[in-house]
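Re-run with default settings, no changes from the original entry. Doing this only to confirm the output is reproducible before filing.
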Amino acid sequence: MRSTFTTIIAGALLAVAASLPAQASVDVNGYKFEDTAKVAGKDLKLNGAGMRTKLIIKVYAAGLYLPEKKTAVADVLKQEGPRRVTLQMARDISSEDFGKAFMDGINENIDKAEKQRIVAQIGKMGELFASVDGLKKGDVLHLDWIPGTGTQTELNGKKLGEAIPDLNFYNAILRIWLGDKPVDRSLKPALLGETK
């Protein structure tokens, strides 16, 4: 009797599981990005994902999540609602090297006047990177824009520092990968969903 009951329950659970939509994901060189991510209570769609390489070395896999898929940089930057960039580290990198690469990416893609407007926020982000010993292979870093709150950074599920307000600052971060001089020319179209 007990085994029949267990079989019925197991069968019911399997039927329920089979009726649920499967969570799809995109594979980037073994790094998985779910098709959706929840940020600030909103479901975001994976706009695109790709691998950041330097010379031939894989540095990290990156995914861009938006409320609606966009293929033009201008549309990504003016999109309302929460947004997310997820980095999955493919190698160890020191906080100094990561911070320098971050600053180089911003400096290459914004002009002096724009940089002056967000210099305080850039300083706060530098302090945040300095508070971390470095990034290890397998670490997952989220850079989220949360309307009404600001840019929230999260490492392996743990929030880092305080949120940094100012949408211009978050858009400057996005330009690291999507600007006129992106850190990786093959990653930009991948994040914009132009390539598989």
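The longest strand covers residues 42-54. The chain has one domain: 23-191.
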